[in-house]
Amino acid sequence: MNTPIASRLAHTGEYYFSRKLRELAALNAAGANIISLGIGSPDLPPHPSVIAALAQAAAQPTAHGYQGYQGTPALRGAMAEFYQRQYGVALDPATEILPLLGSKEGLMHIGMTFLEAGDAVLIPNPGYPTYRAVAEICGAEVREYNLTEATGWLPDLDALAATDLSRVKLMLVNYPHMPTGTAANMPFLTRLVAFATVHNILLVHDNPYGFILNETPPVSLLAVPGAREVAIELNSLSKSHNMAGWRVGLLAGRADVIANVLRFKSNMDSGMFLPVQQAAVAALALGDDWFRELNATYRARRKLVVELLQALGCQPAPGQTGLFIWAAVPAGFADGYALSDAVLAEARVFLTPGGIFGSNGNGYIRASLCQPVGLLREALERIQNIKKDRHAERSEASLPRE
């Protein structure tokens, strides 16, 4: 029997990293010993208090049943306190916060709640590939807005306003931006809210990177006056608290919008495991010492990754935030795919080609900071050895032959 797939998947392939990780696993199984600087999965553990809270809750015999679709009052309260303390944003934990099984899940819930055929969605180019996938699966028209180095990786809102936006229902934004590391900027976010207000567009702000290597205080879009009327915000403990595999995220915003997303979500899952919720409460209570220690580790790693990229002829721009370094591909390589393939083949180091994030990323490469210093040093040495070997080959080729 050959069962046709649904038309909603006609333009949506398997997620790039799903395929690539399988390829790298096959190479490693064959003895390649790949050092992957691709995916942004923190290799560091959560704080010991978080693990202790998980273990303590899991030991309770009543902790293993189905949970409420909105999360526990304790978790929503901890999320509200975190937003007040870190962003200066007051949220009603009963109605303006929805815990999620990771913010990636939340993107799909938002799309399925608000999008249908005939709607249009503004997504960044370059940007997180899931934004496009969500729009396509929901049957909406994808409209890219360009982000380029020349404009500081910010959209040209005036140029967008000059287009026909009558069918645009959502605009996906992400600052600090992945993959470029561009930091959030309050004057720009204020203009963004004004733009959405004029054009009746719901802003969906994806905000998981604000606490990693950010030299300015983290910013929430909901802190902008008037934002709550036109914006909702996704956040996550994956990067900020080293809990990527725990799948803890949140959606924050106006009560009626949250209630509508819950209508869809409540049909898709049966709540978050209670011990994970208790652990998340402990994580959200951590103070600034946690972030200082975390960023000291990433700062040491960033120095090595920048050196590695420079050894390839790439020049990363300063001032990037988040778990990655974004850099332009040097002359001699057609694009990031060509550079990534060459480094993988010759040094057994994997770097992410910028083109997976959109056509404006074709000339770039991205490297993750989610490997220990020892492995980063080894990756650097492998790349330096490539250059030595190439130099030796060129020198040998220039010797006179007998």
UniProtKB/TrEMBL annotation:
One of its GO terms (molecular function) is transaminase activity. Its cofactor is pyridoxal 5'-phosphate. Its EC number is 2.6.1.-. Keywords: Aminotransferase, Transferase. Residues 33-383 form the Aminotransferase class I/classII large domain. InterPro entries: Aminotransferase_I/II_large (IPR004839), LL-DAP_aminotransferase (IPR050881), NHTrfase_class1_PyrdxlP-BS (IPR004838), PyrdxlP-dep_Trfase (IPR015424), PyrdxlP-dep_Trfase_major (IPR015421), PyrdxlP-dep_Trfase_small (IPR015422). It comes from the Bacteria. This is Aminotransferase. It comes from Hymenobacter artigasi.
